[in-house]
Request: fold
Amino acid sequence: MKVPKIVDAMNYLDDDLIFSAEKSEPKKVTFIRTKHRFAVILAAVLATLFLMGAGYYVNQVLLEKVRNTDMSQKEINRLGNALEEWGFSDENISDLNELQTNKNGLTYGPDALGADLIEVISNDGKLGYVYREDLEISERDNITDALTSDGQFTINVYDCDGETVIGTFTLTDGKEQ
Amino acid sequence: MNNIDDLKIIDLYFERDEQAIKETDAKYGKLCHSIAYNILNNHEDSEECVNDTYVGVWNAIPPTRPNNFMSFVCKIARNLSLKRLEFMKREKRSQAVLVSLDELETVLPDNRFAPYTSIEELGSLISSFLRNQKDDARKVFIRKYYFFDSIRDIAERYSYTESKVRNMLFHTRNRLKEYLKKEGVYL
Reply:
């Protein structure tokens, strides 16, 4: 085998070219090897998109949960901010989505979800439920009739069956105490 | 351009002080060995080539006073390694360097080499060509066809993928071929 002339000719390259190629500093090795860099970047992008999607989904779920209530937009925003601030996830709020139904077919649970029997704490500290229409009396025309002399009115608090009275719940001038 | 250490080593050669060879070995022994090993793919042969390189440098200096001692030593090591390669049995040859030689030969086969052009002139033309190439392409080309580094080593050195290095070499070879045709070296 004879070495081709062009290979021999390479031996006559200018010194500075050889010097610069020999002395060229290897690039610093990063924690990601070049051949893995694309995969890592792709994984990071996908993870970011996933997290953004998950965040969006949670927000949509929250929005959907409150959309059918009679909450004002301001209240909805406030609730959304509060839930976000408290770190609620889709899993955390899954149980909020399902109102319980009692033997009479009435739903009971949080006001925000539009329950027939709204969850309250009675005057003596028990967990119970009030009828939505009783609570909304403050918004009706006959509020004046319902008020006592000291500007309050009291409604019954029931067990979840909507029949057993377990206490009372007092409102003042149409506002919860 | 020589640095102070190289100038001192060259002075030792001029003084015929054998310390010059020890200093050369300390500073450039590893580099010479890597060049020889890239070509010969055999540590024993490479070691002999490195020793021959020191003899070559000893015989050349004086009278030569190289402007760039490192390149001077590299050239001798490379030249001796290529000569040794010619005499080695085929099974002992480095497959990688044979591929490199073949790749370069496609740029300018010997039978297309203009007879009135000398090897030195061709080397000078290649230098001119490389000066007009991008820095990264130039360095990769020299690492491959001067130092006979493997594709993998070049990729590691510059943090490129191996396919990128192959691609760069392919395009640089093609451009060199066109350049040599334009310069009338490729007939």
